[in-house]
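User: I've been trying to design a sequence by hand for this structure and keep getting stuck. Would you show me what you'd pick, starting by listing the structure so we're on the same page?

Assistant: Good idea, let's start from the same input. This is the structure you sent:
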């Protein structure tokens, strides 16, 4: 196991990264502010994503947080500074940096999994929704949060909600101030699975281990999935053609000798 910053270091950065057996872990490390994302954190998240893009030995990513809360959104100090002149170049740069951080996570070439404990609000919910799979505790609170702060959603929040839960739940959350528990989020399709915190790492590991075992194949599957499912999604016939060449590549790589009467790969 390798870690860029050992836990317990005298002065830890607000984002920790770790790379172990083909799985990269990004940990928000700003627990005193419920892991609210500031400009420094956004830059570190971008650096992490750059490594994932270039390191083809990584097959899966986990996004998590220290403390008892996943992410309370953008740092309110940055929001306050931007509110003085929201159209200024500096304000646009500030908000774009925070939103750009989770857009980068959403475009990574490997499966991404968020581990949500406590809650995710506003831009924090955006970050969780940007991942491909969201694991939550049953009691976690998933809250749009923008309405309560008296501001319009940002960062493509409505689109992220809409593709996960549809029109009615998007309006209930974003325009009417509703919130979902982790259990409710799984039932609505917003989260993939709910489990007690003590079980989350094991459940996540069940998915990351196979993806990390063959990063090259995993990345090609993810590329095809993004092309086929979009948005916008393509037709079945188009999907067939997208998959044809990549499947031929995988079969050539596997080779005839690796097939046996006991089944594929045995």
């Amino acid at each position: 196991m390798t870690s860029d910053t050992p836990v317990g270091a005298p002065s830890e950065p607000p984002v920790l990264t770790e790379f172990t057996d083909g799985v990269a872990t990004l940990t928000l490390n700003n627990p005193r502010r419920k892991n609210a994302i500031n400009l420094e954190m956004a830059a570190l998240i971008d650096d992490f994503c750059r490594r994932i893009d270039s390191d083809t030995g990584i097959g899966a990513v986990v996004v998590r947080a220290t403390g008892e809360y996943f992410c309370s959104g953008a740092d309110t100090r940055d929001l306050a500074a931007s509110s003085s002149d929201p159209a200024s170049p500096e304000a646009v740069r500030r908000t774009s940096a925070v939103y750009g951080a989770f857009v980068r996570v959403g475009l990574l070439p490997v499966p991404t999994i968020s581990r949500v404990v406590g809650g995710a609000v506003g831009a924090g919910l955006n970050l969780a929704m940007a991942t491909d799979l969201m694991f939550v505790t049953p009691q976690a609170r998933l809250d749009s949060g923008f309405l309560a702060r008296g501001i319009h959603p940002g960062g493509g929040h409505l689109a992220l909600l809409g593709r996960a839960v549809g029109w009615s739940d998007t309006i209930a959350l974003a325009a009417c101030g509703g919130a979902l528990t982790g259990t409710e989020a799984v039932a609505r399709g917003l989260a993939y699975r709910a489990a007690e915190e003590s079980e989350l790492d094991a459940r996540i590991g069940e998915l990351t281990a196979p993806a990390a075992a063959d990063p090259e194949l995993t990345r090609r599957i993810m590329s095809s999935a993004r092309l086929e499912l979009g948005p916008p999604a393509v037709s079945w016939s188009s999907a067939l053609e997208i998959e044809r060449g990549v499947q031929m590549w995988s079969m050539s790589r596997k080779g005839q000798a690796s097939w046996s009467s006991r089944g594929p790969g045995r």
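That's my pick for every position. To get oriented when you compare it with your attempt: The chain has two domains: 15-210, 214-255. Residues 15-210 form a domain with the 2-enoyl-CoA Hydratase; Chain A, domain 1 fold (CATH 3.90.226.10).
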